[in-house]
Amino acid sequence: MSSLFLSMACAEPKYFYLQYIARARQNGTTLLQYSCPRCQKVIETPAAPSGDVWDTMATCPHCNGLYLKVVTDTTVETYIPPEE
Ligand SMILES: [Zn+2]
């Protein structure tokens, strides 16, 4: 079973994302919704603690596009990397 799990997870980034969000929701983590800057589909991400700003490169679970994500406790802003 574990090898099947691994091969599925490797083949499907969206699967990882869904597991991650399901776990966050179970833990009572605040989730924020935003749209992918490339495919415009809705993505959820855990909110940062109040007063914190998280800026990270992220990969869209829907289109696998790369973008920069800036998360605060209430907002998410996204940017397509400037080299494109
Ligand atoms: Zn996308």
Search tags:
globular, binds zinc ion, single chain
Explained architecture:
With 84 residues, the protein is α+β, with helices and mostly antiparallel strands. The protein has one domain. The protein contains 2 helices and 5 strands, in the order H-H-E-E-E-E-E. The strands form 2 sheets. A 3-stranded antiparallel β-sheet has the order 3-4-5, with no helix packed on it. Strands 1-2 form a two-stranded antiparallel sheet. Helix 1 (2-11) crosses helix 2. It is globular, with a radius of gyration of 14 Å. Residues 36, 38-39, 41, 60, 62-63, 65 line the site of zinc ion.
Helix content: 25-40%
Quick one: how many beta strands? 5
Q: CA-to-CA gap between the ends?
A: 41 Å
Total of helices: 2
Q: Radius of gyration, Cα only, in angstroms?
A: 14 Å
Which molecules are bound in this entry?
zinc ion
Number of domains: 1
Secondary structure topology:
Layout: H1 2-11, H2 13-26, E1 31-35, E2 42-46, E3 54-59, E4 66-71, E5 76-79
Antiparallel strand pairs: 1-2, 3-4, 4-5
Helix pairs in contact: 1-2
The structure holds zinc ion.
Residues 36, 38-39, 41, 60, 62-63, 65 line the site of zinc ion.
Quick summary:
The protein is of the alpha+beta class.
